[in-house]
Amino acid sequence: MPADEPYIRQIRSDESPSLGVARTLAALKDTPSHELAPLAKSIDPDALDQIVGHGDGASVEFEHAGLSVTVDGRTVTVRDADGD
Prior knowledge:
Elements: E1 7-10, H1 17-29, H2 45-52, E2 59-64, E3 67-72, E4 75-80
Antiparallel strand pairs: 1-4, 2-3, 3-4
């Protein structure tokens, strides 16, 4: 991923926001999600699902494994944390 370009993925309708983030990071890293650092090391997945999953326009931004992750509605955007 070029430092100046974000990686963007739509969360599928059958995915929770936290699962969408995990699958986005796995796709970005071309690695099975179970081989990545657990999302819970950076954010409470249940809280993420509660905040973003209601579809009321809320967004959450956090850092995970050196990446800046933004979950906004049904979209996950990932950038290099150092590239902000």
